[in-house]
Amino acid sequence: MSxxxxxxxxKRFEGGGEALKDVSVVFPEGTMTFxxxxxxxxxxxxxxxxxxxxxxxxxxIFVNDVNIVKLPVRKIPAYRQNLGAVFQDxxxxxxxxVYENVALPLKVAGMREQDVxxxxxxxxxxxGLLEKERLGTRALSTGEQQRVxxxxxxxxRPKVLLADEPTGNLDPDLSRDIMTLFEQFxxxxxxxxxxxxxxxxxxxxxxxxxxxxxxxxxxxxxSTNLDK
Amino acid sequence: MAASxxxxxxxxxxxxxxxxxxxxxxxxxxxxxxSRFGTSLLVWLLIGTAMALPAGLxxxxxxxxxxxxxxxxxxxxxxxFEVGASVGDINELVQQIRNHxxxxxxxxxxxxEALNEFSSYKEITDAMTLLESNPLPASARVTVDxxxxxxxxxxxxxxxxxxxxxDEIVVERAWLQRLQAIGEFISRLGxxxxxxxxxxxxxxxxxxxxxxxxxxxxxxxxxxxxGATNAFITRPFLYSGAIYGLGGALVAAMVLSAAxxxxxxxxxxLWSSYGQMVNLQGDEPAFYxxxxxxxxxxxxxxxxxxxxxxxxxxxxx
Lengths: 228, 317
Fold this sequence. Notes:
The complex is a heterodimer of chains A (about 230) and B (about 325).
Chain A: E1 4-12, E2 18-27, E3 32-36, H1 43-51, E4 58-63, E5 66-67, H2 76-80, E6 83-87, H3 98-108, H4 113-126, H5 142-154, E7 160-164, H6 172-187, E8 191-195, H7 199-205, E9 208-213, E10 216-220
Parallel strand pairs in A: 3-8, 3-9, 6-7, 7-8
Antiparallel strand pairs in A: 1-2, 1-4, 4-5, 9-10
Chain B: H1 15-35, H2 37-74, E1 76-81, H3 87-99, E2 103-109, H4 111-119, H5 122-129, E3 139-144, H6 150-159, E4 166-171, H7 172-215, H8 217-225, H9 230-272, H10 285-313
Helix pairs in contact in B: 1-9, 2-7, 2-9, 7-9, 7-10, 9-10
């Protein structure tokens, strides 16, 4: 399990404004949190900072008590192998099968072929796509593609699962199914952070909500994190 | 909060897994290059042409060196007697030459023997039958001590130049030294062109690998997101570079083999007219293995140049 902490994080893009302004927030180990806010509020930037695809202009980010802002570039791949990430546009490889897409993080980690097969099938079974493992991802519906993305994100049994608008293109029923999947992963101890602008859905889920606006935290169910 | 511990150690890959990965990547790279055969063929031809010229110059230089060595060991000059010189006068001079302290051996060729030797060349047999008399002079091939300098050799040869029955004395080492100088020039030229064309081969490979990289940009981004190292990501592109380089070396080898086959017969005829056996260097496995290795190295460098440059630019979002 992993605790995540943002300490006075500011992210300013060159030639643009501040995507995040002096944000401090803590995500305790094994919790599930929704990050919400309008488009441009800073939700995606927040997740990109956690993925270390961006670095903050100011402030510190601790994951498992390690300041990832100071993580050397050579250590970033190993750090990312311990994260699971789901994206709105799935980031699936169109030329590869469902199985190959899900197996990717395990192959990167150098796992044995038998273990890869076992884990991939377990992950696909969890998202209900085991019978479609041989299909190409183009043959799947948008909802199925998203579930492949989730299977890929969890196949490595990450301690932290990040999702950026995972239900953005899905209808309400499918969205609810996807969120239930995240809830199941959270129940086994994974720290889950989901960025979503679907207020109705996240309100219905009943988890902690952190709301961003213009780069700042304007609501946090955990009141200790509210910007002063 | 302390940042001293190592919460995300790099996964230790078993050797067998690494080996399997490499085999799989090689298979993928071969599939990738063969699926774009037209483009790959063009790249192979370009690299092959770039490699063939310096490799060809290297072969020329090596053959000149071998020829020079063969001739060097003879260390000789030829004495051509006047046509119609009497056998007695010739024998007397041959004896004088034999008695000289720097001379090791003297072998004579009579006009009849020279004519017989000439008649053995198919190309001129018909022409020889038209001659009413034998126009060829008697000659003597004189070998001197191996340690003798060219100056001393010329000096010894010139001692017999003024004798009445001597028409001409030919010191073969003079042109041989010119040949060696040409060989040296060709060697330098080979190095210069080798560097230039080698850089060309690297750039051609880099451009081709870059193209392959652009086609797999989405895959690279995903790999980065799931924690692949740059070494893992670049591996297929290095193998693609190696395949391009190896294919280029194969083209260069075919060009050079064809050139050797075409040149061997006329060179053999030329050399045998000097009483030498020609054995062209360059058709041995070591040369072709070396050529292949150079191709692979140039290809891998090209792959490295392209992937390192592009990976730095890739922004995953």
